[in-house]
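Sample pair:
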Amino acid sequence: MAAPALLEVRELVKEYPGVVALSGVDFDLHAGEVHCLVGQNGAGKSTLIKCVSGAVIPTRGQVFVEGEPVPPGNPLTSIDRGIGTIYQELDLVSDLTVAQNVFLGHERRGRILLDRRAMIEETRRLFERLEHPQIPATAPVSRLRPAAQQIVSIARALSRQVKVLIMDEPSAVLDDHEITALFAVVERLKQEGVGIIYISHRLDEVRRIGDRVTVLKDGATVATGLPADAPASELVAHMVGRPLSEMFPQREPEFGSPMLQVRNLTRTPDVQDVSFEVRTGEILGVAGLVGAGRTELLRAIVGLERIDGGSVHVDGAPLPPGRPDVAVERGVGLAPEERKSQGLLLGWPLVNNVSLADLGRFVRAGFIDRQSERAEAHEQLRVLDTQPDDPSRRAGELSGGNQQKVVLARWLLGHCKVLLLDEPTRGVDVGAKAEIYKVIAELAASGLAVVMVSSELPELVGFCDRILVMSDGRIVAEGGGDELSEADILDYCVNTKLVREAA
């Protein structure tokens, strides 16, 4: 007989005026398992975990822990019942120490004052339990890397004897090494009997860390209890209602003359003697492991990084090194990997984010023609089907996929010729990825030359016309998507790196 569930969610409904966020969701979690929760943005994942954690009162339905109902809408009661939540935007207090954050809200007390020594010692024991004893209990949280901050959040949950741990996109700001370390912690918690709800857009992570998968779509459970090693095509079909093969738009590319020419570009030690060209209408993918030099290559092309040698030509004319302003004037646009911190001003309206790179075109007699600026920005947002496309909305209010469209709209407005994309689909759901692929394909068809860096091998193979593989700053392989398989690319990335390290 199967063991009873540690957590049960039964027929959970959450209605807002005019919107049904959850429509009868069922979900269960067993002790010592990782149950992954996937779905597009707006599928109901955040609402579900907020109902489970007590932050939101459901309209109907019930949450049970170990067979006992959990009173709705009471976060403290949920915490007392053993439910801990680590949100994507970590809710740590940066000016407090690590130990103070771990025990925030349930501080250890002596007879009169707080027992700071006890909290520090217990924090250290928690880090030893998590095999991260190097994290200093007395340091301000602001000094820690994002990966260490994640461990602090987990330690805080463990300090309250957590039974159910909810992790919302925990790897969003981590590199590959840090993700591996995080997964080791998750495995340790599994062995201790903690049940973990793991939310992620990255299906490769689901396969690596999950035991079972539940898929939400439009606030409803469309599949539950699937094995974590279920084919990605099956999960995608549940999430978006169409097979994976239909994610990438059908294209019949027509290539013109070379628009971007890179010759012997060197930026020691990150980029070493890199040469390639991209034609109009072409989408060139760039693959490689973290540290291969992909981001540095794009930044060197656009002039944001100094170069030690080589040249860059756009439409036959040389770009002066270290002059991003000239690169923009010549039609080179960069959508950076960290769009929230490097690509957008989240507190600014969309109109200002879109016009930022070409504001001079709206100057009339020394003043900015705000009406013209707004009209042209709105047109670009509309063309890209940005939701919402209201130029007065602030960029921080949009979903990840729509924020990426705002960055693309900026370069469309500036009559871009060469578009450099660094991880353009990172952090967005599967449905939004399909929309972004469609936009990029249309831009290429209009005559742009596109260079796309991506860590997702399926999108490189399935979408790009040609692929460069980088390792240790060098191009180690080149071929079309029909010539390089995912296994081939990974083999070049890993084995070339191992050979270089051995040498």
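The two ends are 56 Å apart (CA to CA).
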